[in-house]
Amino acid sequence: MYKLIKIFTETLMMDPKGKKQKLSTSAIASPSLDLKKKKKQKVSKSLITTSPSHSEKDLVIPSPSVISKVDVGIAMKKQTDNAMFLTEKVISAVATDSNFVFSPTSINAALTMFAASSKDETLRSSILSFIRSNSIDELNAVFSEIATIVLPDGSASGGPKISAVNGVWMAQSLRVDPSLKDLFENFFKASFSLVDFRVKAEEVREEVNAWGSKHTNGLIKNILPPGSVTMDTVSIYGNALYFKGTWEQKFPKRLTRDKEFHLLSGTSVSVPFMRNNRKQYVEKYNGFKVLKLPFRQSGDTNRQFSMYFYLPDAMDGLNSLVEKMASSTCGFLDSHTPRIQAEVGQFRIPKFKIDFGFEASSALNGLDLGSFKLYHKALVDIDEDGAEAAAVTAVSCASGGRGSNRSRRIDFVADHPFIFMIREDKTGTVLFVGQVVDPSKSSSD
Protein backbone atom coordinates (compact mmCIF):
# COMPACT_ATOMS: atom_id res chain seq x y z
CA MET A 1 0.00 0.00 0.00
CA TYR A 2 1.50 3.26 -1.07
CA LYS A 3 0.08 6.39 0.33
CA LEU A 4 1.18 9.87 -0.12
CA ILE A 5 0.19 13.23 1.31
CA LYS A 6 1.63 16.46 0.06
CA ILE A 7 0.69 19.79 1.64
CA PHE A 8 1.71 23.23 0.53
CA THR A 9 1.04 26.17 2.84
CA GLU A 10 1.54 29.52 1.16
CA THR A 11 1.37 32.92 2.85
CA LEU A 12 1.34 36.07 0.78
CA MET A 13 1.68 39.74 1.70
CA MET A 14 -1.49 41.76 1.26
CA ASP A 15 -1.33 44.80 -0.98
CA PRO A 16 -1.76 47.76 1.35
CA LYS A 17 -3.31 49.75 -1.49
CA GLY A 18 -5.92 47.12 -2.14
CA LYS A 19 -4.93 46.71 -5.77
CA LYS A 20 -5.68 43.56 -7.69
CA GLN A 21 -2.73 41.33 -8.48
CA LYS A 22 -3.01 38.69 -11.15
CA LEU A 23 -1.89 35.13 -10.70
CA SER A 24 -0.59 34.08 -14.10
CA THR A 25 -0.42 30.53 -15.38
CA SER A 26 -0.22 28.66 -18.61
CA ALA A 27 -1.87 25.58 -17.14
CA ILE A 28 -4.81 24.13 -19.00
CA ALA A 29 -7.41 21.47 -18.69
CA SER A 30 -5.60 19.01 -20.92
CA PRO A 31 -7.61 17.28 -23.66
CA SER A 32 -6.46 14.00 -22.11
CA LEU A 33 -8.38 14.83 -18.95
CA ASP A 34 -12.17 14.75 -18.91
CA LEU A 35 -13.27 18.06 -17.53
CA LYS A 36 -15.81 17.89 -14.80
CA LYS A 37 -18.83 20.14 -14.79
CA LYS A 38 -18.31 23.13 -12.61
CA LYS A 39 -19.16 22.43 -9.02
CA LYS A 40 -20.59 24.83 -6.54
CA GLN A 41 -17.76 26.48 -4.68
CA LYS A 42 -17.14 24.52 -1.52
CA VAL A 43 -16.85 26.72 1.56
CA SER A 44 -15.99 25.51 5.03
CA LYS A 45 -18.70 27.50 6.77
CA SER A 46 -17.30 26.84 10.23
CA LEU A 47 -14.08 28.54 9.25
CA ILE A 48 -15.54 31.66 7.62
CA THR A 49 -16.51 34.90 9.31
CA THR A 50 -17.24 38.05 7.32
CA SER A 51 -17.02 39.09 3.70
CA PRO A 52 -13.79 40.70 2.48
CA SER A 53 -13.36 44.43 2.77
CA HIS A 54 -12.53 46.68 -0.15
CA SER A 55 -8.93 46.90 1.07
CA GLU A 56 -8.30 43.24 0.43
CA LYS A 57 -6.96 42.15 -2.94
CA ASP A 58 -8.51 39.76 -5.38
CA LEU A 59 -6.78 36.66 -6.63
CA VAL A 60 -7.23 36.72 -10.39
CA ILE A 61 -5.97 34.30 -12.97
CA PRO A 62 -6.27 34.66 -16.73
CA SER A 63 -8.11 32.05 -18.75
CA PRO A 64 -6.00 28.91 -19.19
CA SER A 65 -4.02 28.78 -22.39
CA VAL A 66 -3.41 25.74 -24.52
CA ILE A 67 -0.40 23.52 -23.85
CA SER A 68 1.29 23.58 -27.23
CA LYS A 69 4.28 21.98 -28.88
CA VAL A 70 5.32 20.01 -25.79
CA ASP A 71 7.07 16.71 -26.53
CA VAL A 72 5.59 14.69 -23.68
CA GLY A 73 7.95 11.76 -24.25
CA ILE A 74 11.04 13.92 -23.84
CA ALA A 75 9.49 15.75 -20.88
CA MET A 76 8.76 12.45 -19.11
CA LYS A 77 12.33 11.22 -19.65
CA LYS A 78 13.65 14.44 -18.12
CA GLN A 79 11.49 13.95 -15.04
CA THR A 80 12.68 10.35 -14.70
CA ASP A 81 16.33 11.45 -14.80
CA ASN A 82 15.55 14.27 -12.37
CA ALA A 83 14.34 11.73 -9.80
CA MET A 84 17.89 10.54 -9.19
CA PHE A 85 19.17 14.13 -9.21
CA LEU A 86 16.74 14.91 -6.37
CA THR A 87 17.70 11.70 -4.58
CA GLU A 88 21.41 12.52 -4.58
CA LYS A 89 20.77 16.08 -3.34
CA VAL A 90 18.63 14.95 -0.41
CA ILE A 91 20.90 12.07 0.57
CA SER A 92 24.04 14.21 0.51
CA ALA A 93 22.35 16.92 2.59
CA VAL A 94 20.40 15.03 5.23
CA ALA A 95 20.62 11.26 4.75
CA THR A 96 24.29 10.35 4.46
CA ASP A 97 24.77 6.78 5.71
CA SER A 98 21.19 6.47 6.94
CA ASN A 99 17.98 4.81 5.83
CA PHE A 100 16.03 7.09 3.55
CA VAL A 101 12.86 7.24 1.44
CA PHE A 102 10.96 9.98 -0.38
CA SER A 103 8.71 10.52 -3.40
CA PRO A 104 9.97 12.50 -6.42
CA THR A 105 6.54 12.22 -8.05
CA SER A 106 4.92 13.84 -5.04
CA ILE A 107 7.37 16.72 -4.90
CA ASN A 108 7.08 17.36 -8.65
CA ALA A 109 3.28 17.26 -8.57
CA ALA A 110 3.03 19.71 -5.68
CA LEU A 111 5.58 22.10 -7.19
CA THR A 112 3.68 21.96 -10.49
CA MET A 113 0.42 22.97 -8.83
CA PHE A 114 2.18 25.68 -6.86
CA ALA A 115 4.01 27.06 -9.90
CA ALA A 116 0.93 27.02 -12.11
CA SER A 117 -1.01 29.20 -9.68
CA SER A 118 1.79 31.52 -8.56
CA LYS A 119 2.17 35.10 -9.79
CA ASP A 120 5.80 35.26 -8.66
CA GLU A 121 7.93 34.92 -11.79
CA THR A 122 11.13 34.49 -9.77
CA LEU A 123 9.60 31.63 -7.84
CA ARG A 124 8.25 30.01 -10.99
CA SER A 125 11.65 30.26 -12.69
CA SER A 126 13.29 28.71 -9.64
CA ILE A 127 10.87 25.78 -9.69
CA LEU A 128 11.36 25.25 -13.44
CA SER A 129 15.12 25.27 -13.03
CA PHE A 130 15.06 22.92 -10.07
CA ILE A 131 12.78 20.39 -11.78
CA ARG A 132 14.76 20.84 -15.01
CA SER A 133 11.71 21.84 -17.00
CA ASN A 134 11.59 24.36 -19.83
CA SER A 135 8.17 25.85 -19.12
CA ILE A 136 4.99 25.71 -17.08
CA ASP A 137 3.38 24.09 -20.13
CA GLU A 138 5.92 21.27 -19.91
CA LEU A 139 5.28 20.81 -16.19
CA ASN A 140 1.56 20.65 -16.84
CA ALA A 141 2.02 18.17 -19.70
CA VAL A 142 3.96 15.84 -17.38
CA PHE A 143 1.32 16.27 -14.67
CA SER A 144 -1.41 15.36 -17.17
CA GLU A 145 0.50 12.33 -18.46
CA ILE A 146 1.04 10.97 -14.96
CA ALA A 147 -2.54 11.72 -13.89
CA THR A 148 -4.12 9.97 -16.88
CA ILE A 149 -1.76 7.03 -17.40
CA VAL A 150 0.05 6.27 -14.14
CA LEU A 151 -2.43 7.14 -11.40
CA PRO A 152 -5.87 5.74 -12.39
CA ASP A 153 -7.09 2.93 -10.14
CA GLY A 154 -6.34 -0.52 -11.56
CA SER A 155 -7.80 -2.70 -8.81
CA ALA A 156 -11.00 -3.50 -10.72
CA SER A 157 -8.93 -5.38 -13.32
CA GLY A 158 -6.67 -7.02 -10.77
CA GLY A 159 -3.89 -4.45 -10.78
CA PRO A 160 -2.68 -2.12 -8.03
CA LYS A 161 -5.13 -0.02 -6.07
CA ILE A 162 -4.31 3.62 -6.80
CA SER A 163 -5.99 6.92 -6.04
CA ALA A 164 -4.84 10.52 -6.35
CA VAL A 165 -6.54 13.32 -4.41
CA ASN A 166 -5.78 17.04 -4.44
CA GLY A 167 -7.11 19.74 -2.15
CA VAL A 168 -6.82 23.53 -1.96
CA TRP A 169 -7.70 25.79 0.96
CA MET A 170 -7.72 29.56 0.37
CA ALA A 171 -8.47 32.49 2.62
CA GLN A 172 -12.10 33.52 2.36
CA SER A 173 -10.94 37.13 2.73
CA LEU A 174 -9.62 36.96 -0.84
CA ARG A 175 -11.96 37.44 -3.77
CA VAL A 176 -10.94 34.46 -5.88
CA ASP A 177 -11.44 34.78 -9.61
CA PRO A 178 -13.51 31.88 -11.04
CA SER A 179 -10.71 31.00 -13.47
CA LEU A 180 -8.41 30.18 -10.54
CA LYS A 181 -11.05 27.93 -9.03
CA ASP A 182 -11.53 26.29 -12.42
CA LEU A 183 -7.79 25.66 -12.70
CA PHE A 184 -7.75 23.70 -9.46
CA GLU A 185 -11.03 21.85 -9.98
CA ASN A 186 -10.77 21.05 -13.69
CA PHE A 187 -7.05 20.58 -14.35
CA PHE A 188 -5.67 19.52 -10.97
CA LYS A 189 -8.97 17.83 -10.00
CA ALA A 190 -8.71 19.42 -6.58
CA SER A 191 -11.41 20.05 -4.02
CA PHE A 192 -11.60 23.76 -3.28
CA SER A 193 -12.51 25.41 0.03
CA LEU A 194 -12.56 28.96 1.35
CA VAL A 195 -11.48 29.20 4.98
CA ASP A 196 -10.74 31.83 7.63
CA PHE A 197 -7.03 31.76 8.44
CA ARG A 198 -7.15 35.06 10.33
CA VAL A 199 -9.41 33.91 13.14
CA LYS A 200 -9.26 30.11 12.97
CA ALA A 201 -5.79 29.23 11.70
CA GLU A 202 -5.40 26.34 14.15
CA GLU A 203 -8.77 24.90 13.15
CA VAL A 204 -7.74 25.04 9.50
CA ARG A 205 -4.52 23.22 10.33
CA GLU A 206 -6.48 20.52 12.13
CA GLU A 207 -8.91 20.28 9.21
CA VAL A 208 -6.06 19.77 6.73
CA ASN A 209 -4.40 17.23 9.02
CA ALA A 210 -7.69 15.33 9.29
CA TRP A 211 -7.94 15.39 5.48
CA GLY A 212 -4.47 13.91 5.25
CA SER A 213 -5.20 11.23 7.81
CA LYS A 214 -8.40 10.27 6.02
CA HIS A 215 -6.68 9.76 2.68
CA THR A 216 -3.95 7.58 4.22
CA ASN A 217 -6.29 5.45 6.31
CA GLY A 218 -4.86 7.05 9.43
CA LEU A 219 -1.22 6.22 8.63
CA ILE A 220 -0.16 9.85 8.29
CA LYS A 221 -1.17 12.21 11.06
CA ASN A 222 -0.27 15.83 11.80
CA ILE A 223 0.81 16.69 8.28
CA LEU A 224 1.18 20.32 9.23
CA PRO A 225 3.16 20.85 12.47
CA PRO A 226 2.09 23.35 15.13
CA GLY A 227 2.78 26.91 14.04
CA SER A 228 2.84 26.13 10.31
CA VAL A 229 -0.58 27.74 9.75
CA THR A 230 -1.06 31.25 11.11
CA MET A 231 -3.31 34.26 10.64
CA ASP A 232 -0.98 35.35 7.82
CA THR A 233 -1.49 32.16 5.81
CA VAL A 234 -3.59 32.64 2.69
CA SER A 235 -3.49 29.26 0.95
CA ILE A 236 -2.70 25.58 1.39
CA TYR A 237 -2.15 23.10 -1.44
CA GLY A 238 -2.56 19.38 -0.70
CA ASN A 239 -1.97 16.18 -2.69
CA ALA A 240 -2.66 12.62 -1.55
CA LEU A 241 -1.46 9.57 -3.50
CA TYR A 242 -2.41 6.01 -2.58
CA PHE A 243 -0.91 2.80 -3.99
CA LYS A 244 -1.36 -0.81 -2.95
CA GLY A 245 0.36 -3.59 -4.88
CA THR A 246 1.04 -7.30 -4.50
CA TRP A 247 4.14 -9.03 -5.84
CA GLU A 248 3.63 -10.89 -9.09
CA GLN A 249 5.54 -13.72 -7.41
CA LYS A 250 5.07 -13.73 -3.66
CA PHE A 251 7.83 -14.91 -1.37
CA PRO A 252 6.98 -18.10 0.57
CA LYS A 253 6.98 -17.14 4.24
CA ARG A 254 8.32 -20.58 5.19
CA LEU A 255 11.58 -19.72 3.39
CA THR A 256 12.21 -16.48 5.31
CA ARG A 257 15.31 -16.79 7.50
CA ASP A 258 17.39 -14.47 9.66
CA LYS A 259 20.76 -13.68 8.07
CA GLU A 260 23.54 -11.15 8.55
CA PHE A 261 23.29 -7.72 6.92
CA HIS A 262 26.65 -5.93 6.67
CA LEU A 263 26.67 -2.27 7.71
CA LEU A 264 28.83 0.55 6.39
CA SER A 265 30.61 0.64 9.76
CA GLY A 266 31.99 -2.85 9.20
CA THR A 267 29.70 -4.49 11.76
CA SER A 268 26.58 -6.51 10.98
CA VAL A 269 23.02 -7.07 12.20
CA SER A 270 20.72 -10.08 11.94
CA VAL A 271 17.51 -9.42 9.96
CA PRO A 272 14.88 -11.59 8.21
CA PHE A 273 15.61 -12.23 4.52
CA MET A 274 12.98 -13.28 1.96
CA ARG A 275 13.82 -15.98 -0.57
CA ASN A 276 12.35 -17.97 -3.44
CA ASN A 277 13.71 -20.37 -6.04
CA ARG A 278 12.17 -18.91 -9.19
CA LYS A 279 13.77 -17.08 -12.09
CA GLN A 280 14.14 -13.35 -11.49
CA TYR A 281 14.46 -10.17 -13.53
CA VAL A 282 18.08 -9.57 -12.57
CA GLU A 283 21.08 -8.20 -14.47
CA LYS A 284 24.77 -7.60 -13.81
CA TYR A 285 26.33 -4.28 -14.77
CA ASN A 286 29.70 -2.67 -14.23
CA GLY A 287 30.06 -2.48 -10.46
CA PHE A 288 26.48 -3.29 -9.47
CA LYS A 289 23.45 -5.52 -10.03
CA VAL A 290 19.79 -4.63 -10.56
CA LEU A 291 16.78 -6.69 -9.48
CA LYS A 292 13.24 -5.94 -10.68
CA LEU A 293 10.26 -7.31 -8.75
CA PRO A 294 7.05 -6.69 -10.74
CA PHE A 295 3.75 -6.08 -9.00
CA ARG A 296 0.73 -8.12 -10.09
CA GLN A 297 -1.17 -6.39 -12.91
CA SER A 298 -3.72 -9.03 -14.09
CA GLY A 299 -5.99 -7.34 -16.63
CA ASP A 300 -4.40 -3.91 -16.19
CA THR A 301 -2.22 -4.06 -19.32
CA ASN A 302 -1.65 -0.34 -19.86
CA ARG A 303 0.83 -0.08 -17.01
CA GLN A 304 3.42 -2.12 -15.15
CA PHE A 305 4.57 -1.21 -11.66
CA SER A 306 7.77 -2.71 -10.30
CA MET A 307 10.13 -2.33 -7.38
CA TYR A 308 13.84 -2.13 -8.17
CA PHE A 309 16.87 -2.95 -6.04
CA TYR A 310 20.26 -1.49 -7.03
CA LEU A 311 22.98 -3.45 -5.23
CA PRO A 312 26.63 -2.31 -5.46
CA ASP A 313 29.24 -5.05 -5.75
CA ALA A 314 31.35 -3.46 -3.02
CA MET A 315 30.06 -3.65 0.54
CA ASP A 316 30.76 0.08 0.91
CA GLY A 317 29.81 1.05 -2.64
CA LEU A 318 26.46 2.72 -1.92
CA ASN A 319 27.58 6.36 -2.12
CA SER A 320 29.51 5.79 -5.36
CA LEU A 321 26.47 4.12 -6.92
CA VAL A 322 24.19 7.00 -5.92
CA GLU A 323 26.62 9.48 -7.50
CA LYS A 324 26.80 7.41 -10.69
CA MET A 325 23.02 7.20 -10.98
CA ALA A 326 22.55 10.93 -10.31
CA SER A 327 25.29 12.16 -12.65
CA SER A 328 24.11 10.23 -15.70
CA THR A 329 22.48 12.39 -18.39
CA CYS A 330 21.48 9.67 -20.83
CA GLY A 331 18.63 7.76 -19.23
CA PHE A 332 20.46 5.74 -16.59
CA LEU A 333 17.34 4.04 -15.22
CA ASP A 334 16.01 2.97 -18.62
CA SER A 335 19.40 1.67 -19.75
CA HIS A 336 19.90 -0.32 -16.55
CA THR A 337 16.61 -2.20 -16.40
CA PRO A 338 16.52 -6.03 -16.46
CA ARG A 339 14.39 -7.19 -19.40
CA ILE A 340 14.75 -10.97 -19.22
CA GLN A 341 14.29 -13.40 -16.36
CA ALA A 342 17.45 -15.27 -15.39
CA GLU A 343 18.30 -18.25 -13.22
CA VAL A 344 19.57 -17.18 -9.82
CA GLY A 345 22.04 -18.88 -7.52
CA GLN A 346 21.89 -17.42 -4.04
CA PHE A 347 18.93 -15.06 -3.87
CA ARG A 348 17.61 -13.15 -0.89
CA ILE A 349 16.50 -9.63 -0.01
CA PRO A 350 15.74 -8.29 3.48
CA LYS A 351 12.34 -7.40 4.79
CA PHE A 352 12.41 -3.79 5.90
CA LYS A 353 10.30 -0.97 7.19
CA ILE A 354 11.87 2.46 7.20
CA ASP A 355 10.67 6.01 7.65
CA PHE A 356 12.43 9.28 7.04
CA GLY A 357 11.64 12.94 7.54
CA PHE A 358 13.44 16.14 6.65
CA GLU A 359 12.98 19.87 6.30
CA ALA A 360 14.02 20.63 2.75
CA SER A 361 15.45 24.14 2.99
CA SER A 362 18.96 22.69 3.22
CA ALA A 363 18.36 19.55 1.18
CA LEU A 364 16.78 21.34 -1.77
CA ASN A 365 19.11 24.33 -1.76
CA GLY A 366 18.70 24.70 -5.51
CA LEU A 367 15.07 25.63 -4.98
CA ASP A 368 14.61 29.23 -3.90
CA LEU A 369 11.27 29.29 -2.04
CA GLY A 370 12.09 32.45 -0.12
CA SER A 371 10.59 32.19 3.35
CA PHE A 372 8.72 28.99 2.58
CA LYS A 373 9.58 25.80 4.47
CA LEU A 374 9.09 22.40 2.85
CA TYR A 375 8.61 19.41 5.17
CA HIS A 376 8.63 15.84 3.90
CA LYS A 377 8.08 12.52 5.64
CA ALA A 378 7.86 9.08 4.06
CA LEU A 379 7.58 5.43 5.04
CA VAL A 380 7.99 2.15 3.15
CA ASP A 381 7.36 -1.38 4.39
CA ILE A 382 7.97 -4.51 2.30
CA ASP A 383 7.29 -8.14 3.16
CA GLU A 384 6.58 -11.47 1.48
CA ASP A 385 3.25 -10.28 0.02
CA GLY A 386 4.02 -6.79 -1.24
CA ALA A 387 4.74 -3.31 0.00
CA GLU A 388 3.17 -0.49 2.00
CA ALA A 389 4.27 3.12 1.96
CA ALA A 390 3.17 6.61 2.91
CA ALA A 391 4.66 10.06 2.47
CA VAL A 392 3.80 13.56 3.62
CA THR A 393 5.10 16.89 2.35
CA ALA A 394 4.25 20.29 3.81
CA VAL A 395 5.32 23.74 2.69
CA SER A 396 4.57 26.68 4.95
CA CYS A 397 5.36 30.38 4.79
CA ALA A 398 4.75 33.24 7.17
CA SER A 399 3.78 36.57 5.68
CA GLY A 400 6.61 38.61 4.63
CA GLY A 401 24.20 0.92 -21.11
CA ARG A 402 24.16 -2.74 -20.05
CA GLY A 403 27.28 -4.71 -18.99
CA SER A 404 28.78 -7.52 -21.03
CA ASN A 405 29.54 -9.77 -18.07
CA ARG A 406 26.25 -11.66 -18.06
CA SER A 407 26.50 -15.14 -16.51
CA ARG A 408 24.11 -18.05 -16.79
CA ARG A 409 23.26 -17.91 -13.09
CA ILE A 410 23.33 -14.69 -11.09
CA ASP A 411 23.58 -14.37 -7.34
CA PHE A 412 21.59 -11.50 -5.80
CA VAL A 413 22.18 -11.29 -2.07
CA ALA A 414 21.18 -7.86 -0.73
CA ASP A 415 23.15 -8.25 2.49
CA HIS A 416 24.75 -4.80 2.38
CA PRO A 417 23.46 -1.23 1.75
CA PHE A 418 21.45 -0.75 -1.45
CA ILE A 419 19.11 1.61 -3.29
CA PHE A 420 15.44 0.81 -3.97
CA MET A 421 12.84 2.35 -6.22
CA ILE A 422 9.16 1.92 -7.12
CA ARG A 423 8.45 2.79 -10.77
CA GLU A 424 5.77 2.61 -13.39
CA ASP A 425 7.80 0.99 -16.16
CA LYS A 426 6.03 2.17 -19.32
CA THR A 427 6.24 5.88 -18.50
CA GLY A 428 9.31 5.62 -16.25
CA THR A 429 7.54 7.51 -13.45
CA VAL A 430 9.35 7.10 -10.12
CA LEU A 431 6.85 7.00 -7.24
CA PHE A 432 9.27 6.27 -4.40
CA VAL A 433 13.05 6.00 -4.09
CA GLY A 434 15.33 5.45 -1.13
CA GLN A 435 18.27 3.60 0.36
CA VAL A 436 18.61 0.92 3.02
CA VAL A 437 21.78 0.96 5.11
CA ASP A 438 20.41 -0.86 8.17
CA PRO A 439 17.14 -2.82 7.75
CA SER A 440 17.01 -3.48 11.51
CA LYS A 441 16.17 0.18 12.10
CA SER A 442 12.79 1.61 11.18
CA SER A 443 13.19 5.25 12.19
CA SER A 444 15.45 8.00 10.88
CA ASP A 445 15.73 9.46 14.37
UniProtKB/TrEMBL annotation:
Q: Which residue intervals define the domain Serpin in the entry?
A: 84-439
Matching InterPro entries: Serpin_CS (IPR023795), Serpin_dom (IPR023796), Serpin_fam (IPR000215), Serpin_sf (IPR036186), Serpin_sf_1 (IPR042178), Serpin_sf_2 (IPR042185)
Segments forming a coiled coil: none
**SUPFAM superfamilies, per database record:** Serpins
Q: Name one Pfam family in it.
A: Serpin
Highest rank taxon of the organism: Eukaryota
Q: Which GO terms describe its molecular function?
A: serine-type endopeptidase inhibitor activity
This protein's GO cellular component annotations are:
extracellular space
Q: Which protein family is it in?
A: Belongs to the serpin family.
**Name of this chain's protein:** Probable non-inhibitory serpin-Z5
Please tell me the species this chain comes from.
Raphanus sativus (Radish)
Gene name per UniProt: LOC108825168
